[in-house]
């Protein structure tokens, strides 16, 4: 009973500290913070693998499966959010170097087509 009270106390303290820390984060930094935190949840997957080695009952198999699925969703979600955030910072204007290269490719294609047309006309 004593260890259960200690575990519940630690859980409640961690919950209160987490709410306090996240509450101080400005809105502009909340998404990057949560994106990184979600990707760090890969440790949940490692924990599932370690605990799965000790599982022997159907209930534990179900709980392990749920933990693995939810942990994987959290990790993938973290990377998806990060990718969306990075897309917001990409420039919509084409780069001059890239634009120049595509113009050169188009000019080369036109020159090749003209040469083929002239060869066919002779």
From TrEMBL:
Question: Any idea what job this protein has?
Answer: The transhydrogenation between NADH and NADP is coupled to respiration and ATP hydrolysis and functions as a proton pump across the membrane.
Q: Report the EC number(s), separated by commas if there are several.
A: 7.1.1.1
Give residue spans, biased composition: Polar residues. 104-122
Give the InterPro entries listed for this entry: NADP_transhyd_a_C
Q: Where are the transmembrane segments?
A: 33-52, 59-81
- Compartments where found: Cell inner membrane
The EC category is: translocase
Q: What is this protein's name?
A: proton-translocating NAD(P)(+) transhydrogenase
- Signal peptide extent: none
This protein's UniProt keywords: Cell inner membrane, Cell membrane, Membrane, NAD, NADP, Translocase, Transmembrane, Transmembrane helix
Principal subcellular localization? membrane
Give a single Pfam family match. PNTB_4TM
**Stretches assigned to the NAD(P) transhydrogenase alpha subunit C-terminal domain:** 8-90
Residue ranges the record marks as coiled coil: none
The membrane-topology field of this record reads: Multi-pass membrane protein
Instruction: Answer yes or no on keyword Membrane.
Output: yes
* Positions of region (Disordered): 92-122
Question: What is the catalytic activity of this protein?
Answer: NAD(+) + NADPH + H(+)(in) = NADH + NADP(+) + H(+)(out)
């Amino acid at each position: 009973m004593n260890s259960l009270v200690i575990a519940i106390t630690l859980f409640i303290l961690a919950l209160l500290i987490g709410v306090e820390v996240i509450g101080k984060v400005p809105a502009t930094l909340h998404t990057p913070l949560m994106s990184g935190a979600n990707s760090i949840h890969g440790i949940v997957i490692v924990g599932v693998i370690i605990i799965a080695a000790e599982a022997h009952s159907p209930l534990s198999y179900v709980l392990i499966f749920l933990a693995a699925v939810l942990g994987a969703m959290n990790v993938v979600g973290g990377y998806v959010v990060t990718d969306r955030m990075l897309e917001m910072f990409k420039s919509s204007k084409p780069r001059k170097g890239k634009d120049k290269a595509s113009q050169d490719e188009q000019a080369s294609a036109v020159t090749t087509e003209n040469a083929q047309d002239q060869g066919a006309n002779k």
